[in-house]
Amino acid sequence: MFQRFPREIRNSPPAHYTVELNSYSKLFRPEKLEKFESGLFEAGNYKWRLVFYPNGNKQDDGDGYISFYLKIDGCNTFSDNWSVRVNYKLFVLYKDNEFLAVQAEGPIRRFDHNKHEWGFGKFLSLDTLNEYLANDTLVLGAEVFVIVSTGRKECVSILKNPDGATTRTWKIPKFSALDDNPRFSQAYTVDERKWYLSSLVRTSTREKFHIFLPLDVLDPAPKRAVFAEFDLLLVDQKRHSNSFKRQ
């Protein structure tokens, strides 16, 4: 059985590497081979190996289990105080095309000059090994995702008093003669962006005007979303007051 680590069964194979251990019963008898290291594979611009103890890593309390680890390679070429943060999963083929994936608690692991390997001393119980052998073959694998900081940052906020924020008035002459074609106000700048109003007038069956009045930002290639708080006012020109308001 497995240790109590997050695990899943899935049909897709490991994304980065698999190794088939054929003639398993002959190769990995207790007196034959204590430890096996796979060939190199690359993931996240680093080179890795899989380290396999067929009869358990005694230094990691692996008696009665298979021990299985991910190891970073080429550490002697790294700079001083190097470290690599990794999210990884280790796999074993269960049956047909179903893989059992095992992931450590707190999935981010740090590989550095003090710790070259991470994995599981009690990966698979020897008592259940036959359940994972098909034609005397054991298939193991790994997915390795290196966490790299890009230095990018985004900040979302509402400015209390953005530059250029003030009340703007848009007078639409000959309003009653307008058709369904949209009209646009003059663009104005608030917080380094240009804004404008557009209007579309429609007439209902009762000959009442319905006005669509959206506020839009004039930016042909926006690099980020813009959030804005604004009021739209319709001025009663007879009483010179704001008789209609939308937020």
TrEMBL record:
Residues 14-144, 165-247 form the MATH domain. Coiled coil: none annotated. InterPro entries: MATH/TRAF_dom, TRAF-like. It holds the Pfam family MATH_2. This is MATH domain-containing protein. It comes from Citrus clementina (Clementine).
